[in-house]
Design goal:
heterodimer; A: mainly alpha; 6 helices; flat; B: mainly alpha; 21 helices
């Protein structure tokens, strides 16, 4: 009878390593600019604690048993989430560049298509109405200087 | 402690004309509406309405602003419950149990609980303020960095309680959050972790980071689903169930009163209102017999967080009225409104215009009743969010959050922070790290560092300095007692249930 051997959780290991590498870099960056107590009074102890905790987490990444294993994502879910993140990133970058009015419309349109909306009228009207209302509230009622392409703003 | 002549004068001020009351409903509605949009804050709403202030008499202006404040204090709970979007730091605790309740189809009850807790919290705080405004102010002025440090440490103990299934991961998330909270310029002007990006000199933009960690990450998980509440039969918006939620709040009077008192006291301290909800949540969780239910949709979690959040408003007003010191952005804007009427807040205002102070407190108590009605109607309408298809809701909320975070930061650092932290938040969820622990660290990082540093400077590096601060010492004792009590209690219970062998003397 074969016994299930503990497997390795590399994605989690990479994530935890990312956290501790950033923590160590941050501590080093703070140390580099000033070694005064005023600068390091909280950062050094917390960074040391983070490294110690990381060691525990890292060990657990190499001892994944059937009870501690993560539930796998549903089929296609990983791609969906990655695409949603990519679209959000594109909106964040495009907003200040081409104006939030156009970027918001395109983002809503793209997300709705991506999430399964197929009715042409809804695809055109919903983002348009939402954008007009949101941009009007922010730029006119709240006088927020938003970068815009088609109306008053910084664009 | 109550000056009854001034109190009678206050009743006369409020009763002699109906004009001051005209602004209550619009004020509450503006406050509620503002916090329905992620990224908008109470101080922003108050600031936008500042141009109206010179056209009102002073009492009317104060009532208008406190009404807006009251609406906003509750309004922030609505997106926190329905969308897991804490529009400000003061609603973080509400998301812990609010959103799980909404996901389980108990959105009506959750909103009712939050509304009732908010009303009770505000009422308790203003009754306290009416009776002991002056002693509260005298107490507030004696609080310094050591006391604030103990308070911050108290907040940090919540990280230990939020650790989730994996102890090391929970604490690592908290440490990560604490370090993130100290990014930016140090007290000596040294740049830390800014990568020479000027936009990070003031630190990581807190609200976009929180919205990213909590909301955006959660919204990614909803991609591919049809509705927030999958079960059609549970997707109803029912006024009767909101009422049930409101009534249910009174089944836990201990949680409500403790949260309200805690919030009132913490609210008087500058910056305290942001952590009142977390401390109250932490204490409520510690004191119950079944703490494992917290975080899974326990009504007591909502009550603890919301009552403290609401009552911290009264505490903030005590400091503003009695000392003329703003404890946050909203009260700072109110102080500007004082200036517009050539009035300076502080001890002289308290002494010379006691009737006006009482009038503001009494009107705020009356506003609680108005908030219950207006808030109920608003909540009923807001509840329809669960009926909107996620294919529309998710992009709309994310788009609003991005635009709101740009408006808040006034530059691209807001949206960039939101997107970055959305990814980090999702990864944390995926690998079973408690996001709330990181958020608490992020919120308290700078507060802890600043007060630790000031305490260190005051003490000259001698720890026994704390012995000369009776309030800090008392708070430290309470902190230790509250954290050790559960262990002592369980140890004594184990001892009591251990079978004693026959013939052994006890």
């Amino acid at each position: 009878m074969s016994v299930a051997r503990p497997s390795v959780d590399l994605p989690h290991f990479a994530f935890a390593t990312g956290i501790v590498v950033w923590s160590a870099w941050f501590c080093w960056d703070a140390w580099r600019t000033s070694v005064d107590v005023e600068n390091m009074i909280l950062i050094v102890p917390i960074a040391v604690v983070a490294v110690i905790l990381y060691l525990f987490v890292a060990v657990s990444c190499f001892r994944v048993s059937s009870t501690t294993r993560r539930e796998p994502l549903a089929a296609g879910m990983g791609i969906r989430i990655a695409c949603s993140m990519a679209l959000l990133a594109a909106f964040v970058v495009a907003g200040p560049l081409i104006g939030f009015d156009v970027a918001c419309f395109l983002y809503l349109l793209a997300m709705m298509v991506f999430l399964g909306e197929r009715r042409i009228l809804v695809l055109l009207l919903a983002p348009l109405l939402f954008c007009v209302a949101a941009i009007y509230c922010f730029s006119e009622l709240l006088s927020t200087p938003l970068p815009l392409l088609f109306s008053r703003g910084e664009g | 402690m109550i000056d009854f002549a001034s109190l009678a004068s206050a009743f006369h001020l409020l009763g002699s004309s109906w004009q001051p009351w005209l602004v209550v409903v619009p004020g509450i509605l503006i406050g509620l509406l503002v916090h329905a949009v992620p990224g908008l804050t109470t101080s922003m709403a108050l600031a936008i309405c500042l141009p109206l202030i010179p056209y009102m008499d002073f009492l009317q202006a104060l009532i208008f602003m406190t009404a807006m404040y009251a609406g906003a204090v509750f309004g922030v709970a609505i997106p926190a419950i329905l969308l897991n979007v804490p529009g400000s730091a003061s609603a973080v605790g509400t998301t812990f149990d609010g959103f799980p309740m909404a996901r389980a189809g108990k959105h009506n009850e959750a909103l009712g609980l939050a509304l009732a807790a908010s009303c009770v919290g505000q009422a308790v705080a203003y009754v306290l303020l009416l009776g002991i405004a002056r002693p509260i102010a005298a107490f507030a002025i004696r609080l310094g960095p050591p006391e604030m440090l103990v308070l911050a440490l108290w907040g940090l103990t919540l990280i230990g309680r939020m650790r989730g299934r994996h102890f090391a991961r929970g604490l690592l998330a908290g440490a990560f959050g604490l370090l993130l909270g100290t990014v930016g310029l140090s007290a000596r002007g040294a740049q830390r972790g800014t990568m020479n990006v000027d936009l990070l000199l003031n630190g990581v933009p807190i609200v976009p980071a929180i919205v990213g960690l909590f909301a955006a990450a959660e919204l990614f998980n909803l991609v591919g689903r049809e509705y927030i509440v999958e079960d059609l039969t549970r997707r109803r918006v029912q006024a009767s169930r909101i009422v049930v939620g409101m009534l249910d709040a009174f089944r836990h009077p201990g949680v409500l009163v403790r949260g309200s008192l805690l919030g009132s006291v913490i609210g008087i301290i500058p910056g305290g209102h942001a952590i009142a909800n977390l401390l109250s949540y932490s204490e409520a969780r510690r004191s119950v017999k079944d703490p494992e239910k917290f975080g899974t949709g326990d009504p007591r979690g909502i009550l603890a967080a919301e009552s403290a959040n609401a009552s911290s408003e009264g505490g903030s007003m005590a400091t503003l009225l009695a000392l003329g010191i703003p404890t946050g952005g909203a009260t700072a804007v109110m102080l500007v409104a004082f200036g517009m009427h050539n009035i300076t807040g502080g001890p002289s205002f308290m002494r010379d215009h006691t009737d006006m102070v009482y009038a503001v407190i009494l009107s705020s108590l009356a506003q609680v009743g108005v908030l219950a009605v207006v808030g109920f109607a608003f909540t009923f309408v807001a509840g329809f969010v669960v009926k909107v298809r996620l294919r529309m809701l998710v992009p709309a909320v994310l788009a609003l959050a991005v635009i709101g975070s740009f408006a808040l930061a006034q530059n691209a650092s807001g949206p960039v922070t939101l997107a970055l932290f959305a990814v980090i938040g999702w990864l944390m969820q995926r690998f079973d790290y408690p996001v709330s622990a990181a958020v608490i660290g992020l919120l308290l990082g700078r507060l802890t560092e600043g007060n630790l540093l000031r305490t260190y400077q005051m003490s000259g590096g001698h720890l026994d300095f704390i012995l000369t601060r009776p309030i800090a010492l008392g708070m430290l004792f309470l902190l230790l007692a509250s954290n050790l009590m559960p262990y002592l209690r369980s140890a004594s219970a184990r001892f009591a249930t251990t079978p004693v062998p026959d013939g052994e003397l006890i």
